[in-house]
Amino acid sequence: MKEKILNSEEFKHLVKTKKIVSFLLTLIEIIIYFGFIFLIAYKKAFLSQKIWGDINIGITLGIVIILVSWILTGIYIIWANKIYDAKIALIKEKIEEGE
């Protein structure tokens, strides 16, 4: 049965979709992270501007990047639990019914 699942077109499409979702979320994270690194390297004066008290733009952006990373992880977890796992269950059901 395992081989039937792995060879089914629905499963192959689902794997492709999973790769796309993973790639896009990873790309977003990399762009945000390296954008911050480039700001540190080339726009130190901008990042050192005070917002409130001793808190500057750099610290604020660093915290925002961490929060965005958690949010992107949450998006993937929600997608995997609600969509990916549900579709895997449907594929298994269809193949079991066909046997």
Describe this structure in words.
This protein is mainly alpha-helical and 99 residues long. Helix content is 87%, strand content 5%. It has a two-stranded antiparallel sheet. Helix 2 (9-42) runs antiparallel to helix 4. The protein has helices at 2-7, 9-42, 44-47, 57-98; strands spanning 50-52, 55-56. The protein has 4 helices and 2 strands. A hairpin with a 2-residue loop joins strand 1 (50-52) and strand 2 (55-56). The radius of gyration is 21 Å and the shape is elongated. The longest helix is centred in the C-terminal third of the chain and has 42 residues, at 57-98. It has one domain (2-98).
Domain count: the total is 1
Ranges where pLDDT stays below 50 over 5 or more residues in a row are: none
Widest beta sheet: strand line-up: 1-2
Helix residue percentage:
over 70%
**Element pattern in H and E:** HHHEEH
Structural classification: mainly alpha
Average pLDDT reading:
90
Instruction: Report, as a whole number of angstroms, the end-to-end distance.
Output: 9 Å
Task: Name the quaternary structure.
Answer: single chain
Summarize this structure as a short list of keywords or feature phrases.
mainly alpha, 99 residues, 87% helix, 4 helices, 2 strands, two-stranded antiparallel sheet
